[in-house]
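Hi C.,

You asked whether I'd gotten around to modeling the 271-residue construct. I have! Everything is below, sequence then structure, no commentary in between.
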Amino acid sequence: MMTETPGTRHEHSATPLRADCVADTAGGLTFDIVGTGGTDPAHLVLRRRDGEETALPLAPAESGRLRAALPSGVDLPEGRWDAYARFGDDEPRRLSPGVSDLRSLVDRAPGDTADRIAVRIPYTAKDGTLAVRSWLRAPHAEAGDLRIGEDELGVSGRVYGTGLAPEAYAEVREGGGPRSVLCADVTVREAEFGFTVPYAPLGPGIWDLWLRPAGAEGPKVRIARLLDDVADKKPVFRYPRAAVRAEHGEVEAWPYYTVDNDLSVTVSATG
């Protein structure tokens, strides 16, 4: 009968691995997993759904753990990344979520001099495994409080990575390609902006909200809510519907966050 000896690669596949995550205010993440006692080089592997991979070395830490760090300065392109542990030449093993300390992400406020926003939020995927949602935006328009009116939406926010010129304005763009675009005047106070979206001119469909911080000649910045600890806003942030007699007939309109946490408005005919 053949037997296995401790420390061989088969031991790595014997016990499910759980990873604890700690987020810092700069946008970095630290991953801690329980070590298996093997001597093979170990890496934490983040694999995006399109197959792109990022490997981070796992080093011994306290209490027999292995630790990998993903600093905010290391690019992690936007997307959903599945987390694995790889030991030596073994096949990577999916990680299960342990304890996530995301307190530093609540009401996170990057410095005004930040030229980009890096956001990484660990979460539990639908199959129960550990994944990381990543955003990397430069410049970025962060949505703040939304004011829900009877026939309009008030939006406030803050811009990062660029300034706000006196000619700044917002765009309400019909989704699905180069379709209707409506403009809204923006109030500016240093890096903060505000504007109102009236529902009446909007036809049925999805309308995406954009900021033009330098006017028509400058960048076009998607308005999103990223700076907190909620990886998927859509099922969490729900807003009341407004019944409006619009130019296109009777409609219901309401704001929502997309699967990418971008801010949009849905308009639906009611007759």
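If it helps when you're writing up: The chain has a mean pLDDT of 89.

Thanks,
B.
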